[in-house]
Design brief:
The complex is a heterodimer. By secondary structure, chain A is α/β, with parallel strands linked by helices. Chain A has one domain: 3-Layer(aba) Sandwich (Rossmann fold). Chain A is built from ten helices and twelve strands. Chain A has an eight-stranded mixed beta sheet with strand order 6-7-8-3-9-10-12-11, sandwiched between helices. In chain A, helix 3 crosses helix 4 and helix 4 crosses helix 5. The mean pLDDT of chain A is about 90. Chain B is an alpha/beta fold. Chain B folds into two domains: about 220 residues, P-loop containing nucleotide triphosphate hydrolases (Rossmann fold, 3-Layer(aba) Sandwich), CATH 3.40.50.300; about 90 residues, no CATH class. In chain B, about 30% of the residues lie in helices and about 25% in strands. In chain B, helix 5 packs across helix 7. Chain B is globular, with a radius of gyration of 21 Å.
């Protein structure tokens, strides 16, 4: 499979925008935050045509920021994201393509409450010349049908829908732009358990029907395992492990991946089963002042002196798998 | 022996323009001392309102319209605000989903803990500090004595939830109601807190009601499971037993829809439709329009009947347990 999207040395930093007064106050020792957040720290990987790549990590690890950079919403501070070899952003920092679309976590926030669903869906395609105003209605109906909503939904407003239905609308809106690539940021996290399965099935169906390439960002390791072909694990702005989903789940190489998988509560179906977690010690360090060397060394059972000083480079351990660790776990 | 807590036919309704919203409609269960039960359901199932009702934390337009809540034989429904205050925090404590909403942002942790102690007895400043530091230490906050002078915003989300748990434990309550206490936290922090809560409950002999939407989380801490749907308990029993052999089609559907129970990349088993609006419940069993086992009999509300081995289910056509 060839690469559709290439992410090369992408970093994203957020520096606080301080007024002159604040800068002076900070110099005088006032507690004003002047440090820069390194949300994404020189990340490189590619997303292959037609694959679903799962991006997993805890809150604050930078996975949503990375998703937004790939979708062209944020301009990277360094590095470049290309789609079929062409940069996603123009020299002016504005998005040049509609071939990457995004689905957000909260379908209550991502839909305009005052605009009818049909208009929400056809607005983008009309602006980009994908459909004429005269055909907009039929076009919207076509995409509503694709996500399993009735055609008369087009005349209704977002508040008339449940959370699961709204997420379907948000997906229809993204699909109506005829993207090659969909960036999904926690698309089922805010839905009820019985509705999550419906939306996961919808993604599986859309993938089969439209051959979509997807970046599926989630903290739910169960759902990511189900839907992804490959999986990337992110920790404090860096990709620490990347490989085929089953291989990574069965035999993780990075100690963080191992610890993360061990933290998932499992269904207890035997009364005698004693549930024992091996929780990761400590917490995610602040991205304002990440530790030197490997970011995980403070919590890592295998850490040695080297880990505190040298950032481990990501290197291939076996076919298609790579890990950023000085002392990766053996299979 | 009288149970620690006995809830009988509890009904909590909310008055709205469209009539009474029956958030909790005839819920009965009991908890023994030191027992941990899991209360599972989706949003709108009434699981949180059940927890709030036990503590008398229902504000208008909500009202407990019927039933009883007995703590060691003493009726709590109908107590005055003052009598309830004496019970809350001392005999029954609660931990909420969002610790930022529990903690006062302008007071130090130490002050908030002292206030919680003073509310139920007189303590000296130094006693309060010593006691607070001890409990903070127990819930895994390093350098506890010094952290007493910190404000809530100086803690991470996980640490804030630990502080909230410490405050709940301060007066050694007999029962702690935990409303989705780990839902807002990362998996690694969730695993730490689950382990600690389980050990603490065992050590202090504290009973817990663990409210959650996540079956796996509940199964790793509780010994008994209650499943709620549209304001009623629809299934109850020992956790492992219920999860291995669910008797209510809704519980079975929830379990079947978990990705762990499907082949990778294949469609998940899905429960059709969506959770019903409490204003517009179908006749009889509330799950019946989504159920693949429904029959004409289901328009009559089924009773919660015994399914053997300490199990109950509210279904005319139960699975894994013969006929109703």
């Amino acid at each position: 499979m060839s690469a559709l999207v290439d992410i090369r040395n992408v970093s994203k930093r957020f520096a606080p925008r301080l007024s002159l007064g604040e800068k002076i106050a900070a110099r005088l020792g006032q507690p004003i935050e002047t440090r820069t957040v390194h949300a994404v720290d020189s990340v490189s990987f590619e997303i292959r045509k037609g694959e679903v790549l799962g991006l997993v990590g805890e809150s604050g690890c930078g996975k949503s920021t990375l998703g937004r950079v790939i979708a062209g919403i944020h301009a990277p501070s360094d590095g470049v994201v290309t789609l079929d070899g062409a940069p996603i952003l123009g020299p002016d920092g504005r998005k040049r393509t509609s071939r990457v679309q995004m689905v957000f976590q909260d379908p209550f926030a991502s839909l305009d409450p005052r605009i009818r669903i049909g208009e929400t869906i056809s607005e983008g395609p009309i602006a980009h010349g994908l459909v004429s105003k005269a055909d907009a209605k039929a076009y919207a109906a076509q995409w509503l049908a694709a996500v399993g909503l009735p055609a008369d939904a087009a005349d209704r407003f977002p508040h008339q829908f449940s959370g699961g239905q709204r997420q379907r609308v948000a997906i229809a809106r993204a699909l109506a732009m005829k993207p090659d690539m969909l960036v999904c940021d926690e698309p089922v996290a805010s839905l009820d358990v019985s509705i999550q399965a419906q939306i996961v099935n919808l993604f599986l169906k859309l993938r089969r029907e439209f051959g979509l390439t997807m970046l599926f960002i989630s903290h739910d390791l169960g759902i990511v395992r189900h839907i992804s072909d490959r999986i990337a694990i992110m920790y404090l702005g860096r990709i620490v492990e990347l490989g085929p989903t089953e291989a990574v789940y069965k035999a993780p190489s990075h100690p963080y991946t191992r610890a993360l998988l061990d933290s998932i509560p499992k269904l207890v179906t035997e009364a005698e089963e004693l549930v024992s977690f091996k929780p990761i010690l400590g917490e995610l360090p602040s991205p304002l002042s990440p530790p030197p060397g490997c970011h995980f060394h403070l919590r890592c059972p295998r850490a040695e002196a080297k880990c505190r000083e040298i950032v481990p480079a990501r290197r291939e351990t076996s076919a298609g798998r790579d890990v950023a660790c000085h002392f990766p776990l053996e299979e | 022996m009288i149970p620690l807590l006995e809830v009988t036919d509890l009904a909590t309704h909310f008055a709205t323009r469209n009539g009474a919203l029956k958030a909790v409609d005839g819920v009965s269960f009991s908890i023994a001392e030191g027992e941990i039960i899991g209360l599972v359901g989706e949003s709108g199932s009434g699981k949180s309102v059940t927890g709030f009702s036990i503590l008398g934390l229902i504000d208008p337009p909500g009202r407990i319209v019927g039933g009883s809540v007995k703590l060691k034989g003493r009726e709590l429904v109908g107590l005055s605000a003052r009598e309830l205050r004496a019970i809350r925090g001392r005999e029954i404590a609660m931990v909420f989903q969002d610790p930022s909403a529990t903690l006062n942002p302008v007071l130090t942790i130490g002050t908030q803990m002292r206030l919680a102690l003073e509310a139920h007895g007189s303590v000296s400043e130094s006693e309060a500090r010593a006691r607070s530091a001890e409990v903070l230490e127990r819930v895994g906050i390093p350098d506890a004595a010094r952290r007493l002078d910190a404000h809530p915003h100086q803690f991470s989300g996980g640490m804030r939830q630990r502080v909230a748990i410490a405050i709940a434990l301060l007066n050694r309550p007999k029962l702690i109601i935990c409303d989705e206490p780990t839902t807002a936290l990362d998996v690694s922090i969730q695993a730490q807190i689950l382990t600690e809560m389980r050990d603490l409950a065992r050590e202090f002999g504290t009973a817990m009601i663990w409210i959650s939407h996540d079956l796996a989380t509940v199964s790793s801490i509780a010994s008994r499971l209650l499943v709620m749907y549209a304001g009623r308990i629809i299934e109850e029993g020992p956790v492992a037993n219920v999860l291995r052999q669910p008797q209510h089609p809704y519980t079975a559907g929830l379990l079947a829809s978990l990705p762990a129970n499907a082949e990778r990349g294949m469609d998940l088993v899905q429960i059709p439709g969506s959770t019903p609006s409490l204003f517009d419940l179908p006749p009889g069993c509330a799950f019946q329009p989504r159920c693949d086992r429904r029959s004409p009999a289901c328009v009559v509300m089924p009773e919660l009947t015994s399914g053997g081995l300490g199990r109950r289910r509210r279904c005319h056509h139960p699975l894994n347990g013969g006929s109703a």
